[in-house]
Amino acid sequence: MNVVLLGPPGAGKGTLAVQLAQSLGLLHLSTGDLLRDEVARGTPLGRQAEGYMKRGELVPDEVVLAMVKERVNGVRGVLLDGFPRTLAQARGLEAFLKVDKVVYLAISKEEVVRRLSSRRVCTRCGAVFNLVTQPPQQADRCDRCQGPLAVRPDDRPEVVARRYEVYERDSAPLVDYYRRQGLLVEVNAAQSPEAVGAQARAALSQ
Ligand code: AMP
Questions:
Q1: DSSP label at residue 147
Q2: What confidence score (pLDDT) does residue 22 get?
Q3: From the first residue on, what is the mean pLDDT of each consecutive set of 10 residues in the chain (206 residues)?
Q4: For 179-202, how does the pLDDT look when each residue is reduced to its tens digit (9 = 90+)?
Q5: Which residues make beta-bridge pairs with 202?
Q6: From 55, 71, 141, 152, active-site residue
Q7: Count of Cβ atoms closer than 10 Å to residue 157 Cβ
Q8: Most buried of the four, 33, 83, 108, 145, by CB within 10 Å?
Q9: Residue 141 is among the residues annotated as catalytic for this protein
Q10: Which H/E stretch holds residue 11?
Q11: Is 152 known to be catalytic?
């Protein structure tokens, strides 16, 4: 089964993806994580993507499509987190992967802004915390590896506002696109991670 997670930044796609990938035995592919890794390693792709990411803009479709295509080749079931983000990406994806279900994490803009401003990520292992909903045991230290926690550069308020605008303009139309194809499952994302996970699993098993 191939599943797409759709929703605005801060809806909880990453958290849900980790849960679902484990329970359904799917490969978790986060284009945001893959791009951040390319940036951290200073690869040509990373250097190309960095400016877009810093500004909260989307990396060009062909760059992201090529990256995903290479990774899903030969994989049996995949969970796509943060991809596709434009209609062009959705159409490009259809050429090499059949999407079986799309989980849409529905949430208000106010809640998203609140969550992103309290998100902290481990600069060593990438674990994600939230000072309000999933606080680390020690302030500014990762529970998993004790690495230092930091605010993601694109979680600064001015970039968050831009990312949300880009989501509404480029990605929100995908909700209707997949609904018309009968693939969409809508989940209320303004709940605890456990409740979101349970609702998503129940919807996917139908
Ligand atoms: P995310 O971690 O999913 O919020 O992604 C962080 C940033 O990576 C986004 O703001 C974009 O700049 C870039 N990015 C991630 N996925 C995509 C995608 N499917 N298409 C274009 N840009 C992307």
A1: P
A2: 94
A3: 96 94 95 94 95 95 96 94 98 96 95 91 92 90 96 90 94 98 96 94 91
A4: 999 999 999 999 999 999 999 999
A5: none
A6: 152
A7: 10
A8: 83
A9: no
A10: none
A11: yes
Residue nearest to atom 15 of ligand 1 (CA): 32
Distance from residue 183's CA to the centre of ligand 1 (Å)? 22
Other CB atoms within 10 Å distance of the CB of residue 59: 20
**Residue whose entry in the numeric block shows the structure tokens 């030969």:** 74
Q: How many angstroms separate the Cα of 187 from the Cα of each of 5, 30, 65, 164?
A: 11, 19, 26, 19
Q: What is the pTM of this model?
A: 0.91
| Neighbour-count burial of 30, counting CB atoms closer than 10 A to its CB (0-12 exposed, 13-18 middle, 19+ buried) | buried
Grouping H, G, I as helix, E, B as strand and the rest as coil, residue 92 is helix
* Helix or strand (DSSP H, E) at 13: helix 13-24
Residues with CB under 6 A from ligand 1: 9, 31-32, 35, 52-53, 56-59, 64, 82-83, 85, 89, 154, 163
- 36, 85, 101, 115: the catalytic one is 85
**Residue 119 bears catalytic tag:** yes
55 given a catalytic annotation: no
CA of 35 to the centre of ligand 1 (A): 7
Residue 129: enclosing H or E segment and its boundaries?
strand 128-130
- Total residue length of the chain: 206
Following DSSP, what letter does each residue of 157-196 receive, concatenated?
A: HHHHHHHHHHIIIIITHHHHHHHHTT-EEEEE-SS-HHHH
Q: With beta carbons less than 8 A apart as the criterion, state whether 104 and 7 touch.
A: yes
- State the distance from the centre of ligand 1 to the C-alpha of 49, rounded, in angstroms: 9
Give me the catalytic one of 13, 36, 115, 120.
Answer: 13
